[in-house]
Write a structure and sequence with these properties.
This protein is globular. A seven-stranded mixed beta sheet has the order 2-5-8-13-16-18-19. A hairpin with a 4-residue loop joins β18 and β19. With 179 residues, the chain is an alpha/beta fold. Helix content is 19%, strand content 26%. It has one domain: Hexapeptide repeat proteins (UDP N-Acetylglucosamine Acyltransferase, domain 1).
């Protein structure tokens, strides 16, 4: 899975145990609506690969495993975000993510015959520092978003986004710079 190769998650005892642990963690985390940011931060450090100082993720929040997620200092994620982290998902310092954003590292074969075998694969997602991602945006597997980029609300990001670029739409396309 972590090598980006095809794998079948069904029937894999190690992944099943990891998934069960993540579900139990999500139940605990998502029950913290009245908790302090410090209490939530402590829970994040239990499950994530890295949690930067002052990172805030508002519940409800959903993950595949959590141990492939790294968030930098001052990251903010609003309500109802999803990170499918079968591969590394990295979010840089001071990045702000709107509600209901989906960050998807999980992917599936394009041909139906291979999909019928229940095989899947993943590609890492990397989001730079000082990025703003509007509510409802979807970041697809293998995408890299450069520092200072702006992703419009509802955008479906299918390709890499350069530093300081603004992209909007489905599929997300660059907005021309204004003179």
């Amino acid at each position: 899975m972590l090598a980006g190769e095809l794998y079948n998650p069904a029937g894999n005892a190690e992944l099943a145990a990891d998934e069960a642990a993540a579900k139990a963690w999500m139940a605990r985390y998502n029950a913290t609506m009245n908790a302090t940011n410090a209490e939530r931060h402590a829970l994040l450090t239990e499950q994530f690969a890295r949690v930067g100082k002052d990172a805030v993720i508002r519940p409800p929040f959903f993950i595949d495993y959590g141990y492939n997620i790294s968030v930098g200092d001052g990251v903010f994620m609003n309500f109802n975000c999803v990170i499918l982290d079968i591969m590394p998902v990295t979010i840089g310092d001071r990045t702000q993510i709107g509600p209901a954003v989906q960050i998807l590292a999980a992917d599936h074969p394009r041909d139906a015959a291979t999909r019928r075998t229940m095989l899947e694969f993943g590609r890492p997602v990397s989001i730079g520092s000082d990025v703003w991602i509007g509510g409802g945006a979807i970041i697809l597997p293998g995408v890299t978003i450069g520092n200072g980029a702006l992703i419009g609300a509802g955008a479906v990001v299918t390709r890499d986004v350069p530093e300081r670029a603004t992209v909007v739409g489905n599929p997300a396309r660059p907005v021309p710079a204004r003179g």
